[in-house]
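Local shape tokens

___
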Amino acid sequence: MMKIFSKKQNTLVRLGGVFIGIFLTLLIYSSCVDSIYDNIKEFSKEEIVYPAAFDTCYGTIGYERVEIDLRKDGRIPASKISMGKAKKTVVVYDENTPEPTVIRIDSVCSYVNITGLTEPRLYRFKIYTEDEYGSRSIPQEISLIPYTSYDRDVLKLGILDPTVSVAPNALVMEWPTGLNTIMMEYHGLSFQYSDKDGESQDGIRSKEPRIYCGNLPAGQEMTFNMKYKVLPILEDGSKLLDTLEVAKPYIVQMPTPEQQFIPQELKILKANGISTFTTEAVQDINELVYPMNMTTFADLFFFPNVSTLNLTGKGLPETLETLTYARNNEHSIVGGGEWQEFLMPVDQPSKINGPESLQTLKDMLDAGQITHIKYIPKSMGFDFDKFLAPYVESGVVELLTNDNPFFPDHVFVGPQFFANGTVQTTNWNMKLAYSGDFLPRPGLSDITNFDPQSDMVNGKPVDLHLEQLIQSDGENIYRGVIERHNPSFFFALPRQWRFDNERYPYLKFKMFIGSDKSLLTNVGGNRYHVFRAPWIRPMNSLWSFGQNSDYGQESWDAGRQDLMTDDEIQNSWREYTINMSNNDGGDNSNKRNRVYVVNIGHEDGVTWNYNEEKQLVIYIADFRLCKTPND
């Protein structure tokens, strides 16, 4: 019985435990049935969803500012950005200071531009999005050091000063190596200064800067207020966002006007009548003449008031080159003296090297100092023509074309171009004399003198009828006694020059025979009658002097001329007109004739025997180049 009772008692205990467990569970459940949020109700009335954060953050440095990009897909308009509940962009820096800076932007931005960063230090930035309730996203953080005025002052020390060429009243600033350095990229400059009249002058330069300043006060200190537009290069090789204008004045002590300069074209300046080479001595000169064979305009820099340039060389003494012919015990020199209008450079225009220091000329043209230039097209080459083209269009350059009054209808060939034909061959021997003072040249015996007013031929006086000549003073007559069967002399130009037969296509001269007509008659087949006519032989160079032309000989036949009649001999001058237009001198032509051989008799197979008592005497005068057959 006790055993049975014990089992019943255990069962009741177990049932009681189950009921107690169920009761406790129900009690706990009933205590929580009202709300699972009972513990936070007093802190939050509803569920909070925070705004989305920016997905990246990287910065770029500017002047007293930074730009911070906030999206991986680049910079896009705010209207195209969708970031859930995010409505604003918030930038915070100096957060741990008493007065942190907070910038709110009323849109979600793909980048921000933060300005006013004037201190050369590290700035720590936090960038958030913010919703309409002021809830912020997780921030993007970045630390940056802006470029400030302190850095600009350091940069100024690295700007290169110009190389200066200075005259008492002018200077040129140049930067031969440029203004780009490892610290900066040059983008331009501006300048300002006051000239000697107190007038403010200014200007702007961009690439390859060069500054010409004229009308400056001699002997004074000049301040040029320079401002350089540069883009700084940062230590990592990247470039600043902003180009900066950096002021760096440049001070120059101007020379005094009595200081001498060293002329580059000494011979030309002396030919212009200049003997003292100081700015003070040349300050009253307003026109300079330069020959076509000049080399540089550098000397213009020292002429404060020159306004007109004549680039023809006309009127300048002793500016032509000379050339020597020496052979067969004979010696002649051609050239020297003045330029004449029938002269042009021998080279094809494409091969002519134009003058140097064009920049000096350009400076003075652009500054308005030089207002008039006289120039013969192609005379200094195609490149120089191209350089002058803008100034031709503006009216500063006057082109002296063939129809310009600058070129007279005819030009007499000067005696400085005479040469004795014996230098080519003894078969050309003539006993030559000249009526003027220029020949013979000092120290030479290639020609003698005669008096055209009282000449004698074979013991008898001869009347040269000077009144029939254009040059009736008789100062430019050549007298030749025929000594060999191919008598010739010639006119030649220095190898740098040619006859311009495009401008002057006709060679004209007069011939007179002083011997009795019986001596110039075909007697027994001797053919002496052929000496009654001249023969002109144009060419680039003589056979024995090929080195005098770079274009070959280019000899050609100008045609046979008529014989003088019995009535003309000893009574009148016969004028001959030779059409020389075959010597075109074109831009690409090799016919660049610089030699005219004057042959008597056309080399027509004469049976020759020289007789001292029966000399054949020929006179040549009025030797000239003409525009038309009637000049």
Remarks:
- The first strand starts at residue 58 and ends at 62.
- The helical segments are 2-32, 149-157, 266-271, 279-282, 358-366, 382-393.
